[in-house]
Amino acid sequence: MKASLVARLRGPVTAVSAPVLACGLSLAGLGAWTAGGNAGSPPQLAVTEGHVYQRLGNTPETAAFFTVTNTGGSSDRLVAVSSPRTEVPPALSRHRMTRSGAAYRWPVEDVAIPAEKGLLMDPHEIDVTVRPEGDWRLGQRIPFTLHFERGSPLTVLATVVRPGARRT
């Protein structure tokens, strides 16, 4: 009777052992990932640089650029930018080119900020379209608040620079 019981249990035990082993290995891997500080760590955002181009002539708009770092373990999204020194709310935009080579800005709703990396805005990719309130002088510092999907808003000062420059 013992031999028949062992024989009857051998098939189901063998069938169950592979999934149980896979679950155990997965749990061990997740435990190691968590112990390494990666599981669920929130985004850690900082703005390390901000500059805005001085408006040229009668053009109503210009562009602002920010360097956002994310040292956290999860990504975030930049969803809006605001400033008390603009005529209309600033807008996130992407640089585009026509077939004839003319440049234009395309509005975007949000911009990804990858975990353990960040976002570097530049005139050839992502920027913030700005309509200044009055004339901004070179070297002037303009307040902007960057709003994120998950992280707290960050208020920074962007330095007014000549178009094409990174800093004053």
TrEMBL record:
One Pfam short name: PCuAC
Superkingdom of origin organism: Bacteria
Chloroplast found in the keyword field: no
Signal peptide: 1-22
Keywords: Signal
Matching PANTHER family: BLR7088 PROTEIN (PTHR36302), COPPER CHAPERONE PCU(A)C (PTHR36302:SF1)
Protein known as: Copper chaperone PCu(A)C
Organism: Streptomyces qinglanensis
